Amino acid sequence: MMDRSDRSDRLDRSDRQDHEPGMYARTPSPLKQMEEQTAEARRLFDRLLETAADQRMTLAASEELRNLRLADLLLEESLELQPAEPLLSEELASLGFQIATQPYETCLASRVDDAKARASVLIGGARRLAGDRAGAEEAFRCAVTYLTCPPDSIERGFYCQQLAALRRDQGRDDEATGLLWRAALIYNENSDLLEEGACLAELGFLFVADDQVHRAVLPLSRACEVLDLHRDATLAVLTRLALAVCHARLGDADKAQRILKAARTMYSRIADSSRQLAHVTWMEGKVAAFTANLEDAPGLLDTARKAFVQQGRLYDAAFAGLDLAAVLARTGRLESLHFIIHDVVEGFRADVGQVGVLRVLGTVESALLRGRRAELEEIITAAGERLRRYRRNPLLVFEGMTMSQSSRPSSSPLGASA
């Protein structure tokens, strides 16, 4: 049996364990350690951004900032800045990559590769948003080097999702579709329902743009179930509007109007972006057109068309122009496409894309000049399909040129046609 002195000694040792450092000190809990690491990373984050811009990269390469949690914070902030501030987003991602490039213990190799891969993808996304597609392509190639994670990991899903946006901008819709399906599947397997919904929404947008509304309904409906909580509030609005367009196009006007009303209650959440607002106006105009609201549709579609011209969005301006022509034709108010053609000539540089758009618009104008008004609806539909082909591959504008036409001899001594 333990005597009084033994009990006293044990109580003394217990008291020292609670109040004195040393071998009896308690190890901090994992949660406490994470909080301390995050606080330190946040302190370093603030120090880095308080440094002059031209000195940040040098500081990021210093031993003081060798901290993977800091790299994570920079990459999280970089993602939040897209799409509003692509230049700052790229800078933060580049700083995160620099920090991840420093030497770390071998046991951290997978975390280092994940950070480098995500940084490269974010740099690619930022460059795409800034219009630098060649630079974006280079960044995505770099990301592949560091994708050493399992095939079903979140990092691979993020890579596929972001690369799909670049492929979409390049007109490579089939590749974008495959990448988005893959990303959605990976996010689903990792229970990331919000990003799965974002991928499904983008899939729906691609199908709507290709006039495959029957294929768009399912992914858009699924996306609408979860996207209210997504960090990009505008995406939830655009998804509902796209779904409304689908139901209007399929003849269910009542359902389209219900979805449209639900979307309108969320307009206050739309980012203050002329690009986003123009797209919202276009979708509203399309719903109005498909539900026979011919009073509002022309104004909405023309407002969107003019905004696309100002923003330099050639194909969007052309598609909105064809939508407007279809509505005006149904009301008997379409006399000419001269005002649309004029805006394309004056608003866009003379390149192969502009040539294709003008050729498509010219087929409708030619039909008007020849009095083929009874066939206008079919002609405009065919023009839209042709324009979609040109958007996917602008060089198709030269399709139909025969060898004899392209190699016809010239009377000019320089080989140029007279």
Folded structure, characterized:
With 418 residues, the chain is mainly alpha-helical. 70% of the residues lie in helices and 0% in strands. It contains 20 helices and no strands. It has helices spanning 4-19, 30-50, 56-60, 68-80, 86-101, 109-129, 133-146, 154-169, 173-189, 193-209, 213-224, 233-249, 253-264, 274-290, 297-310, 314-330, 338-347, 352-369, 376-392, 403-406. The N and C termini lie far apart (119 Å).
In short:
The chain is mainly alpha-helical.
Helix percentage range = over 70%
Return Rg in Å.
Answer: 29 Å
Runs in which pLDDT lies below 50 for 5 or more consecutive residues are: 1-5, 13-24, 402-418
- Number of E-type strands: 0
Features:
about 425 residues, mainly alpha, 20 helices
Topology record:
Blueprint: H1 4-19, H2 30-50, H3 56-60, H4 68-80, H5 86-101, H6 109-129, H7 133-146, H8 154-169, H9 173-189, H10 193-209, H11 213-224, H12 233-249, H13 253-264, H14 274-290, H15 297-310, H16 314-330, H17 338-347, H18 352-369, H19 376-392, H20 403-406
